[in-house]
# Entry
Amino acid sequence: MTDGTVYSGSHWQRYATTDTDEAHAYIRRAFLDVTVRFSGEGRDGAGLRTVATGLADIDVTRLHYSARTQLQTAPGGDLNITHMMSGHFTVARGKDEYRLRSGEVALMLPDQPMDADFDDIDAFIARLPRALLEEVAHSQSGISGADLRFDSYRPISATLGRHWTRTLSHLTRSVLSDPALMANPLIAGNTRHLLAATALAVFPNTSLDAGLRATGKVTPQALRRALAYIDDNAEQPITVEQVAAAAGVHARTLQLAFRRHRDTTPMQYVRQVRLERAHRDLQAADPGTGVTVTMIAKRWGFTHLGRFGTDYRAAYGSSPSHTLRT
# Structure
């Protein structure tokens, strides 16, 4: 495995085997059920090596598998997205075949069987649970969980495919490399929802075409309840569904109301409130006690310090470090 500094720490679990049956059992356990049709071992047998970690209900795995293998998947519900680093990997459904090149991504369709053929692959695989995808899809488009289906294993475009790989790479280096950040409920919640939202944007699915119309109007009282809920719970993981429930309206209706009356979205307002709380903490902190900008930013769920600094300067006219010093 390369990038040892990224995959270091006890929260990254390593596994290796040269036994073919054990390798297939690992695939079934870690990703999805499969029926193996052919497996041709190399000089080192199956040659399976992995390093993996989990963020709540999301699993990410760097995998190298040297054996030539043909298999068929069984529908499992969860989403497995593969980013190919090197090797040969082809997925097919009927006569539709997709041969990945280095750097490309593919989705193992969760609702129907597929054929896969791979040989000496090095890949980064993310497994996202169905329940999380349904939650995020519903909050974005109003689609019900039962109606969420993915239509293709190809990304909508090469650009969006690269967006997935960049997003996952950034989160791996900035969040999954640090157990303390992974244990932070705000950061973990934001990371989970970001990955699910990215998957929904990258691969064709029914939520993109939902076009659900808002049901009813949001009263001023309901909007105030939504704002109050966010203000009172900014230090906790927050979803659009939770805010909508507190306001007593449909999630899609709430999204439109925030656009119409606040010129923002509920989650952008959450970020705005957290930025304000970080500002207050920076003003009140004594740098002589060892408090740092990084500590305060991470407390409020900001993992990308460069973006935090940019947003902070735009909002308050100075850098976070200047506020802390003065």
